[in-house]
Amino acid sequence: MSPIIQPVPITNENFARWGQVVRLPDADPNAVQVNQGTAQKFSHLAEFINLRPASTDSANPNPALTPATANIAIFKCYKPVQTPTFGIKLLERHSYSSQMFMPMGGDGNGSFIVVTAENGPDDKPVLSTLQAFRCNNTLGINYKPNVWHHPMIVIEKPVQFMTITHENGVALEDCEEYWFTKESGSEGGVAAHIQLTL
């Protein structure tokens, strides 16, 4: 039987190997007053990384890669999962870019699940390392480049996310998918089930 994974509440510490949690810090000695003293600015909350060249100039360290630019997009996740568990059939990664998901208009009443896995020596996700994190919609997450993860799993209600990813239109460079099969240790294409109900 496919393993059942219990999501844990996400924290800066338990997500650090996969990326950063983007949230308002409890305390930040580097925060500054801005906008004539009407706001506070918290900087450098995540690492925005592009491992491809930003242009086609002669300084391109890897001419085999097509230049990529930042794509600020909105993901409208309008179909919350309604079942007590959710089957993981695939993971994806962005080999050359970080990827940030930031809920828009978060009020704390909508949740989403983040699923990650380590990369193996065969350059595929390692099924035994699957982890799941429960997040509310007042915080965002930022994946490091090359981190295997599941597409966003929204529960309870729809959530809109602003996303930032470096892209160039080359499919495998922008997003690589890995579908689990029986040979990779899954049952009927389902590698694991995420427990969604508390």
TrEMBL record:
InterPro entries: RmlC_Cupin_sf (IPR011051), UAH_cupin (IPR047233), Ureidogly_lyase (IPR007247), Ureidoglycolate_lyase_dom_sf (IPR024060). SUPFAM superfamilies: RmlC-like cupins (SSF51182). Pfam families: Ureidogly_lyase. Gene3D superfamilies: Ureidoglycolate hydrolase. Keywords: Lyase, Purine metabolism. GO terms for biological process: allantoin catabolic process; purine nucleobase metabolic process. Homodimer. This is Allantoicase. The lineage of its organism: Eukaryota, Fungi, Fungi incertae sedis, Mucoromycota, Mortierellomycotina. The gene is DAL2_1.
